[in-house]
UniProtKB/TrEMBL annotation:
GO biological processes: regulation of intracellular pH
Organism encoding this protein: Phalacrocorax carbo (Great cormorant)
Domain Band 3 cytoplasmic: 1-114
Protein name (Swiss-Prot/TrEMBL): Anion exchange protein
Classification of source organism: Eukaryota, Metazoa, Chordata, Craniata, Vertebrata
Transmembrane segments: 196-219, 239-262, 282-304, 444-462, 492-511, 532-556, 592-611, 618-637, 669-700
Claim: ATP-binding is one of the keywords in the record: no
PANTHER family: ANION EXCHANGE PROTEIN (PTHR11453), ELECTROGENIC SODIUM BICARBONATE COTRANSPORTER 1 (PTHR11453:SF10)
Length: 738
């Protein structure tokens, strides 16, 4: 029972009894100045703050008992016990009882048939609303009827200490180091929790899948000058160093789409003009890193404070939608590779066949020479599909183009992993098992889902596509090594000209890194150890130099994986009063999970025999989960839902109290329009200027100052979390009354 009570709980003792020396009842309601322990009186070791004593003449025990029950009910009411703490005299208590009785539903004893089920009320009175009414505040208004208080404009991060410009050389960087240094030791021992293990396994699988996907695409774009192994090594080296020394170790580094587009364009340009691609890329990387270091030295990260919710949510929603779209795109591509025979009829099963036959004598010379070499006769019908095509044979039959069951099984694994992850993540709020077990299942939701569906795949035995990682540690292309020489491959002027494309890379790196950092450091995550925008960018620049010399891809903060990392490390109250929802405490801020994830990514090359049992559709299901989960709590998504929601069912969002609904819908429409334009841009060759267009979102938001009042923007585009704003408004009303 004690585990279920909040840490600072206080008791209220209700004592009733009969005595023979009283003619009329005696009642006392006592509030002690300080809560005290009253021995065995309270039954549990909780200090007592309130005492209610009722003594009366004999013969009315039942009546006294009912009065005691009524007082106990009153004291268990959140609003009344708030009044009891603050009451100055008897009149305050009576006013509190009156307020309580106004909200009570009374059932007449004679007319209540216990056999009839009493329907619950359509709307329960909100305790916030009751508190407001008690404190004299006006009734809550919806759809922007609340009187204007002038507003303060759609705020960015102007009040954020980390983004104040110092005006000194490297001033911001030095402040970041001083801010983070006291927490460095705790960043390691704070990870001593079972939750960290679940985060490591989940983020590791997400990172490996991302590295393989990106490495494959990069290999195609650069003719294997950079491939899957370079992607693995780069991810491991940059990620581990960043998590060890950066300002915000919860950020996960990865390669991004615009970087891939840039690499493809750069490779084609180098090929067409006869330049050495890796050497040209090295100089672009060095120039870009130098430009990033100038941005660090001049405190340029202070510009982040102009990123409002409009820009942040536009960017994070787009990246989440890309994750969701890519997961489905990969599954559809898989369905094209393993087509389903839609004409199949069970009754015609005897008609289906596929055999290998020789095509023509000319095409069979290789096979003929093989027969002479081994002096044996090989039956064409005994060859596998691969052997048949290799030796110039042809596949004949109406079943050759189809692969049974693979596509269907893949989609079962894909949707199964996603659904199971979602269900197990919400398991902590279910009624089954003790709290500890529920929390453990919820923490390990994604890992359990992956294990379950890997087991199902192994049990069914269908040959679904599996995770294949490189098993040898050597560059993908035999034409290159692990160190790129900076001179000798290109004319001297190329080294200087590289500064021009480097400018685009710098904008790309700065925007991707800092918007993700802003999203990670949001106030609703309740981070206590502070951010380090300048320090993060400093390490991204240093790692860019290392990657350029080693011919590895460039890395920057990855939005969706970073949000998934934070979600997997969220902490909630372990002990709460019976029936009370656990409260969000913050995030387990530490460096260990990130470091171990990237070390594991590096040694994945040696774990290839184990990883080959994981089906790719299961990992695509994890990608879908990450995309959908990162949209949770995004105000933009809440406003999209409002478009389909009748007025009476709309939740009590703070902006709906102050801004007319049509203005809310106009704001949402403009955000959708910007998102659609960014999506179209991303899908074309112009994707290379994608970061510049993200910067354009800031300009669009600035232009909205002429379309919306500062009052409207202060509620629609404020970076303060919804809950905090509600709380502040309610407190303001109370103070006004006092």
């Amino acid at each position: 029972f004690m585990k279920k009570l909040p840490r600072d709980a206080e008791a209220s003792n209700v004592l009733v009894g009969e005595v023979d020396f009283l003619e009329t009842p005696f009642i006392a309601f006592v509030r002690l100045q300080q809560a005290v322990m009253l021995g065995a009186l309270t039954e549990v070791p909780v200090p007592t703050r309130f005492l209610f004593i009722l003594l009366g003449p004999k013969g009315k025990a039942k009546s006294y008992h009912e009065i005691g029950r009524a007082i106990a009910t009153l004291m268990s009411d959140e609003v009344f016990h708030d009044i009891a703490y603050k009451a100055k005299d008897r009149q305050d208590l009576i006013a509190g009882i009156d307020e309580f009785l106004d909200e009570v539903i009374v059932l007449p004893p004679g007319e209540w048939d216990p056999a009839i089920r009493i329907e619950p009320p359509k709307s329960l009175p909100s305790s916030d609303k009751r508190k407001n009414m008690y404190s004299g505040g006006e009734n809550l208004q919806m759809n922007g009827d609340t009187p204007h208080d002038g507003g303060h404009g759609g705020g960015g991060h102007g009040d954020c200490e980390e983004l104040q410009r110092t005006g000194r050389f490297c001033g911001g960087l030095i402040k970041d180091i001083k801010r983070k240094a006291p927490f460095y030791a705790s960043d390691f021992y704070d990870a001593l929790n079972i939750q960290a293990l679940s985060a490591i396994l989940f983020i590791y699988l997400a990172t490996v899948t991302n590295a393989i996907t990106f490495g494959g695409l990069l290999g195609d774009a650069t003719e294997n000058m950079q491939g899957v192994l370079e992607s693995f090594l780069g991810t491991a080296v940059t990620g581990a160093i960043f998590c060890l020394f950066a300002g915000q170790p919860l950020t996960i580094l990865s390669s991004t789409g615009p970087v891939l587009v840039f690499e493809r364009l750069l490779f084609n340009f180098s090929k067409d003009n006869g330049f050495d691609y890796l050497e040209f890329r090295l100089w672009i990387g060095l120039w870009s890193a130098f430009q990033c270091l100038i941005l660090v030295a001049t405190d340029a990260s202070f510009l982040v404070k102009y990123f409002t919710r409009f820009t942040e949510e536009g960017f994070s929603s787009l990246i989440s939608f890309i994750f969701i779209y890519d997961a489905f795109k990969k599954m559809i591509k898989l369905a094209d590779h393993y087509p389903i025979n839609s004409e199949f009829k069970v009754d015609y099963i005897t008609h289906y066949s596929c055999a290998c036959e020789p095509s023509d004598p000319g095409g069979c010379m290789e096979m003929f020479s093989l027969l002479l070499q081994y002096n044996t006769t090989i039956d064409w019908s005994s060859l596998t599909k691969e052997e048949c095509l290799k030796y110039g044979g042809q596949l004949v039959g109406n079943n050759c183009g189809y692969v049974p069951d693979i596509t269907l099984m893949s989609f079962i694994l894909f949707f199964g992993t996603y659904t199971c992850s979602m269900a197990l993540k919400k398991f902590k709020t279910s009624r089954y098992f003790p709290t500890t077990a529920r929390k453990l299942i919820s923490d390990f939701a994604i890992i359990l889902s992956i294990l379950i569906f890997c087991g199902i795949d192994a049990l069914v035995g269908v040959d679904t596509p599996k995770l294949i990682v490189p098993s040898e540690f050597k560059p993908t292309s035999p034409e290159r090594g692990w160190f790129i020489p900076p001179f000798g491959g290109n004319p001297w002027w190329v080294y200087l000209a590289a500064a021009i494309p480097a400018l685009l890379v710098t904008i790309l790196i700065f925007m991707d890194q800092q918007i993700t950092a802003v999203i990670v450091n949001r106030k609703e995550h309740k981070l206590k150890k502070g951010a380090g925008y300048h320090l993060d960018l400093f390490w991204v620049a240093i790692l860019m130099i290392i990657c350029s010399f080693m011919g590895l891809p460039w890395y920057v903060a990855a939005t969706v994986i970073s949000i998934a990392h934070i979600d997997s490390l969220k902490m909630e109250t372990e002990t709460s009063a019976p029936g009370e929802q656990p409260k969000f405490l913050g995030v387990r801020e530490q460096r260990v999970t990130g470091v171990i994830v990237f070390i594991l990514t590096g040694v994945s090359v040696f774990m290839a025999p184990i990883l080959k049992f994981i089906p790719m559709p299961v990992l695509y299901g994890v990608f879908l989960y990450m995309g959908v989960a990162s949209l949770n709590g995004v105000q933009f998504m809440d406003r999209l839902k409002l478009l389909l929601m009748p007025l009476k069912h709309q939740p009590d969002f703070i902006y709906l109290r102050h801004v007319p609904l049509r203005r809310v819908h106009l704001f949402t429409f403009l955000q959708v329009l910007c998102l659609a334009l960014l999506w179209i841009l991303k899908s074309t060759v112009a994707a290379i200027i994608f970061p510049v267009m993200i910067l354009a979102l800031v300009a669009v938001r600035k232009a909205m100052d002429y379309l919306f009042s500062q009052h409207d923007l202060s509620f629609l585009d404020d970076v303060i979390p919804e809950k905090d704003k509600k709380k502040k408004e309610d407190e303001k009303k109370k103070k006004k009354k006092k």
